[in-house]
Amino acid sequence: MTKRKGYRDWRWQALWWHHFFLLWITIDGQTRYSITEELKQGSVVGNLAKDLGLGLSDIFDRKLRVASEAGEQYFNVDAGKGELVVNDRIDREALCGQSASCVLPLQVVIEDPLQLHRIEVEIRDINDNSPSFLSNELSLNIAESAAVGTRFPLESATDPDTSPWLILACLWSHWEVFSVCV
């Protein structure tokens, strides 16, 4: 009976190690790229074939394709070079709103044998929208006795690239010369 139990333990351990190595092979590190918003169509994000360890012939033979989890196809694979390229203009504010981070998850599907890779593309913000105020003009009455460096709060400005912020005007001299402080 002890021999039989030891035999079963050995088979159990072998099966466990077999499954462990199968999982080890199928679980790859996640690939992550970072780009700025509003890149031109055809701009290169990264070399997908190289990062996934594929040859250029594998792209055709194994029918590599990219599927977006966001619904719209913002990216495509250049089969000749193995590069992930921008397929359509990406507006970060329209896609992620005021969120601090904007990440687009993608699924890379490779056939024969079937492999799935999850990659992420982080969309970084560029300052493409200027702040705007409710009124175009502002009148300040400043006494001649105001000290140099005195600050005067202005109305709030809104910026579609960031959350609303307050701009302060700095009095650099008593001759009413201002500069914008952030």
From TrEMBL:
Entry's transmembrane regions: none
Keywords: Calcium, Cell adhesion, Glycoprotein, Membrane, Repeat, Transmembrane, Transmembrane helix
Domain Cadherin: 27-133
Taxonomy, superkingdom: Eukaryota
Major place of residence: membrane
Membrane topology: Single-pass membrane protein
Cellular localization per UniProt: Membrane
An MF annotation (GO) of this entry: calcium ion binding
GO biological process: anatomical structure morphogenesis; homophilic cell adhesion via plasma membrane adhesion molecules
Signal peptide range in chain numbering: none
A GO CC annotation given for this chain: plasma membrane
Protein name: Cadherin domain-containing protein
The species this protein was found in: Stegastes partitus (bicolor damselfish)
